[in-house]
Q: What sequence folds into this?
């Protein structure tokens, strides 16, 4: 850029922000959203990294399921560091006095036992303040326990009271304020509050029985200078067939990391959508600003300025404004996370390391500047490459020149770089690629839809109503912003429609469909010799009308077709199966209701090599076919089975479904428990729970209705967050709409004055203009409803594998938002226009 262009840009900038307020607001909104999300993600990631050993509970954690480590394994671990053993399982906590609160005197809990070395890192905080050893010690004939506040609230117990867990009466000595390794096991839904006991306290409960659903974890504190990765390699080399899951501080909370990364990606894409919508406002603002500079540009050309000089002069001016809008967005994005820290701590108990992170801010700045460049190049080039004479004629007859190939290539290159940035910075590249493709398609679709609305308005110009005819004429007149408004507002409303329909469908299925088909209870850890007594206890309660039970073990997939699970390339449909242990069962006969989609069930008297029936959806995700093999760790022993059939599993029924069902012959000889579902009337649920858990203290009852309520609450919180973030796109559309109305203010003033001079009353002019905006809102909403419904259908049926039903109420709510935005902003602009006096304007004309 030469000195002349710079001088022109500097002089133009002296005019202030007039014409660029919408431009700056659109950029600032999108950049702020992306910068805020990136900063929060970086804060959580840094917090996890800094507290990784505390979250994990050690330098290395070795997890086994349903079995303790052997003596040889324990000796090896003790020889290579300082171990601490933790065990966790689900159990029932019961008030020993039998006094029920709201009909309930017992609650499902997450029981955790710890040894004297716990915690290796971090500190447990209790109320009243005391050491963990004192809280859990055996004293006055009872083991102690520390409990979460949620159990205090559920059973109305307090420190000093007793609570029965299994066969033990525990004395509650403290309430857990902080559990240092809690974040390492963060789950979307926790089935019960934490109860912490000592190793001796767990033994006293008599819950540790053969086949019980219990997880053991040995946390290791390594000697100084010992690398965790080398330790893991040595451990796995010493015990290659142990089948345990080993984590180090580098992946202390993999589930949390996945959740944070995916949430951040979703929110970033929402922010990017808002930025793209704002890009339309950027283009409109630039076009409007340059249209007001027609005489200036023409004069510059007449006195010898080249198109190149003028192009770079105005591009530099726009660059300064873009930098200003981006800077505002960055300041907001860096300032918001500390303000949101308290709310985030309540939602997700994770450590936040709040700081100024350059990386996310640079990415947000790049998105903002690239968006401004992408949407500004074309209108600037168009205004500056038209001959001077045409520019003067633009005052009364706008020209429609097209920039040359170089500008088209530069614009295309800017689009490619913007898309590449979205893909490269994404957690899941495929999702980002689909987003880029979908955004491109949506931009083209809504642009064409806007042109279609203008043509439809032109074709309908022969109506009798004067008001309606004038409103239609305003939609397709020269210089009308109809197409850009349909594009920007339509994209935001499409996101809202899709979100509302997805949320509504999922909520409907949880609230209506699932309870109609779901059991009332899951009962776990039923010992084989307790089956007859269990069924007798359930059937003794009126209102309990169906019992289904199957034997169950837990195992973890070690290999798929001989390839270690960690090296298997799987889609999300199958990757979840490999992350941790899964429930296993076996059956000679094909279970009732089984839907085989491929292969055949083994004969009832089958006694050959192990076979397995695999869930079809998970098999597709893992690339498995009939005849392939999977190796599963069962109680520390690898079991390899060949896939004999694939089953379609309906997980949403909450029935007894398993990813893997094995043939009999080997697995049934392992220590086992049974899991059962009980279908009962709501009025009988308390009696069923009491009958079973009083007779069998080791059996745990999980109320499906409570789980569904928790799931519904989680869905509502997620939906609220999604609606809030989706609202950013509507706000961006509103900014574009407001900018378009502001840009046409002068024309509105002129039209209002002429109509009043011709005898039109104020209310008639107002009604005409509002009718224009009403038609615009209706057309935009109709298109958004169609596109949003298709998008929601695709997400539900293709991605979530859920049922779909059209919910007119959700669409109507979104339509109300569209009408309120369009008519509200339109009314504000019209009211200002109607306030102008006719005489001054006519004298100036």
A:
């Amino acid at each position: 850029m030469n000195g002349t262009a710079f001088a022109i840009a500097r002089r133009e900038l002296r005019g202030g922000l007039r014409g660029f307020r919408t431009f700056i607001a659109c950029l600032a909104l999108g950049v702020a959203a992306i910068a805020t999300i990136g900063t929060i993600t970086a804060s959580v990631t840094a917090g996890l990294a800094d507290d990784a050993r505390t979250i994990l509970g050690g330098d290395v954690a070795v997890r086994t399921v349903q079995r303790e480590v052997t003596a040889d394994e324990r000796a090896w671990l003790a020889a290579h560091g300082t171990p601490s053993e933790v065990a966790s399982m689900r159990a029932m906590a019961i008030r020993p006095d039998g006094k029920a609160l709201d009909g309930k005197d017992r609650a499902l809990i997450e029981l955790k036992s710890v040894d004297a070395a716990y915690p290796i890192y971090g500190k447990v905080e209790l109320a009243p303040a005391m050491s963990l050893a004192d809280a859990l010690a055996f004293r006055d004939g009872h083991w102690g326990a520390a409990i979460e506040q949620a159990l205090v609230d559920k059973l109305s117990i307090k420190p000093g009271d007793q609570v029965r867990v299994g066969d033990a009466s525990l004395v509650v000595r403290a309430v857990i304020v902080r559990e240092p390794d809690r974040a390492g096991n963060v789950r979307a839904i926790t089935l019960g509050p934490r109860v912490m006991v000592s190793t001796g306290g767990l033994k006293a409960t008599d819950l540790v029985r053969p086949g019980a659903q219990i997880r053991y974890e040995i946390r290791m504190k390594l000697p100084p200078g010992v690398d965790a990765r080398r330790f893991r390699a040595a451990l796995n080399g010493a015990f290659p067939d142990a089948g345990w899951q080993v984590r180090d501080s580098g992946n202390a909370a993999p589930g949390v990391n996945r959740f944070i990364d995916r949430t951040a990606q979703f929110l970033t894409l929402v922010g990017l959508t808002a930025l793209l919508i704002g890009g339309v406002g950027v283009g409109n603002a630039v076009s409007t600003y340059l249209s007001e500079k027609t005489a200036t540009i023409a004069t510059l050309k007449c006195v010898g300025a080249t198109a190149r000089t003028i192009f770079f002069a105005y591009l530099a001016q726009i660059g300064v404004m873009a930098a200003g809008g981006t800077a505002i967005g960055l300041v907001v994005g860096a300032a918001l996370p500390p303000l949101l820290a308290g709310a985030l701590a309540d939602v997700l108990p994770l450590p936040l390391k709040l700081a100024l992170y350059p990386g996310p801010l640079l990415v947000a700045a790049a998105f903002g500047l690239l968006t401004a460049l992408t949407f500004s190049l074309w209108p600037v080039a168009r205004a500056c490459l038209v001959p001077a004479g045409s520019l003067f004629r633009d005052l009364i007859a706008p020209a429609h020149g097209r920039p040359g190939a170089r500008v088209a290539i530069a614009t295309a290159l800017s689009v490619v770089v913007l898309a590449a940035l979205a893909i490269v910075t994404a957690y899941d590249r495929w999702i980002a690629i689909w987003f880029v493709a979908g955004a491109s398609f949506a931009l083209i679709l809504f642009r064409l839809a806007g042109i279609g609305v203008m043509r439809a308005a032109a074709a309908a110009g022969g109506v009798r109503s004067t008001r309606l005819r004038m409103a239609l004429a305003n939609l397709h007149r020269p210089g009308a912003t109809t197409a850009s408004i349909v594009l920007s507002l339509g994209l935001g409303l499409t996101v809202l429609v899709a979100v509302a329909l997805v949320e509504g469908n999922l909520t409907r299925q949880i609230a209506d469909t699932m309870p109609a088909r779901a059991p009332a209870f899951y009962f776990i850890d039923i010992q084989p010799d307790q089956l007859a007594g269990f069924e007798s206890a359930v059937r003794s309660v009126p209102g309990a009308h169906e019992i289904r039970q199957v034997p169950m073990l837990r195992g973890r997939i070690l290999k798929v077709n001989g390839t270690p699970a960690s090296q298997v390339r799987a889609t999300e449909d199958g990757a979840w199966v490999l992350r941790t242990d899964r429930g296993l069962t076996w059956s000679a006969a094909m279970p009732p209701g089984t839907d085989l989609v491929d292969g055949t069930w083994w004969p009832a008297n089958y006694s050959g090599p192990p076979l397995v029936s695999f869930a079809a959806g998970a098999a597709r995700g893992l690339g498995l076919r009939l005849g392939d093999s999977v190796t599963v760790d069962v109680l520390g022993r690898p079991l390899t089975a060949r896939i004999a059939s694939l089953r379609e599993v309906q997980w949403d029924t909450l029935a007894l479904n398993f990813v893997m069902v094995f043939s009999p012959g080997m697995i049934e000889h392992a220590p086992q428990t049974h899991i059962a579902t009980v279908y009962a009337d709501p009025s009988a649920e308390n009696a069923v729970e009491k009958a079973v858990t009083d007779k069998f203290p080791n059996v745990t009852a999980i109320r499906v209705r409570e789980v569904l309520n928790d799931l519904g609450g989680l869905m509502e919180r997620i939906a609220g967050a999604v609606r809030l973030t989706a609202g950013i796109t509507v706000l961006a559309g509103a900014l574009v709409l407001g900018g378009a109305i502001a840009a046409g203010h002068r024309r509105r003033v002129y039209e209002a004055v002429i109509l009043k001079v011709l005898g039109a009353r104020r209310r008639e002019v107002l009604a005409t203009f509002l009718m224009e905006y009403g038609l615009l809102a209706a057309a935009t909403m109709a298109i958004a409803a169609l596109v949003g419904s298709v998008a929601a259908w695709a997400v539900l049926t293709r991605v979530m594998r859920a049922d779909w039903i059209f919910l007119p109420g959700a669409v109507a709510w979104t339509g109300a938002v569209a009408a309120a935005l369009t008519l509200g902003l339109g009314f504000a602009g019209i009211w200002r226009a109607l306030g102008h006096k006719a005489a001054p304007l006519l004298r100036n004309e």
Q: What stands out?
A: The chain has 26 helices and 22 strands. The CA atoms of residues 6 and 313 lie 6 Å apart.
